[in-house]
What does this fold into?
Amino acid sequence: MRWNKYTLSTTTQAVDLISYTLGEMGIEGIEIQDKVPLSEEDKKKMFIDILPDLGPDDGKALVSFYIDPSQDHEDTIQRVLNEIYGLRDFVDIGEATITKSQTADEDWMNNWKKYWKPFKVDDAIIIKPTWETVDDVPEGTLVVELDPGTSFGTGMHHTTRLCITQIKKYLQPEYKLLDVGCGSGILTIISMLLGCREATATDIDPHAVDAAVENAKGNHLDMSRCRFLCGDVISDNEFCETVDMGQYDMVVANILADVIIPLSKVLREHMKPGALFVSSGIIDMKEEAVRQALLENGFEIVEVTYSGEWVSFTVRA
Ligand SMILES: C[S@@+](CC[C@H](N)C(=O)[O-])C[C@H]1O[C@@H](n2cnc3c(N)ncnc32)[C@H](O)[C@@H]1O
It folds into this structure.
């Protein structure tokens, strides 16, 4: 099957907001091309010695996204463009012209693998694609083997890293963890490798749940201490019963603000008193809306952390 590829010319400063907006419209698999150089810190994190010389950063960026030809109606594209043009109030989106081409499905599904290399999340955790090798791993370093397939969760995104930092800071060995929106399973896997007692990971996307199971096995987790379930804790009471809501010491959810807000409404009544809720996936323009929802639902704010344009709340029930 061939997909229709749309490429939008924009500015580097608008890239995060445009990606976020496309994600909210259900458009995933976004590709970004720009000349922003990696920071020295980022270079140290990567296991890449020689990077191609792209020339000076000119502030321009190309954002490509893909649409199944059967869904590619004029009104779909118009809706996407309207949302993107609406961002002009917040950020300089540049000329925002769009071009259309076609690509093979296989390319889109697998091309990114060429560019995803082992990297350090911090001094103690390395994420390693299952098809790569890493030599000379420093003693005491956790190596997490991952193949996210089509699901989210390579560990490269700001929001995943914000969650990992908070998990490392607050997780206790006796904790039972609930990971809502597990994607590749990365947060559950790291928590279990750090010594968490039990974990339940959920996602509404069955492909994500399958990938998370395979990744958990690939990291030799004790599968009797963790489970992976497909469903929605926000709207499905029966699923909440299966998940045993109310039993957890820590809940993590790296999902968009528009999901964190309704989640905060149902979650607290299902949490142990004093249990922690770590959320991210929140773009900075939605920070206040999420803060308000958390406070209205009785959470006490423990810490708010930031990376790029992304926010993470750690709160207590
Ligand atoms: C941004 S990804 C996070 C993946 C991974 N936890 C990470 O931190 O990298 C968000 C995930 O949440 C899932 N999701 C979206 N809405 C959800 C909901 N209402 N309940 C559970 N999962 C949901 C998506 O399918 C996606 O896999």
User: Anything to note?
Assistant: The chain has two domains: 2-111, 116-316. The chain has a mean pLDDT of 90. The longest strand covers residues 2-11.
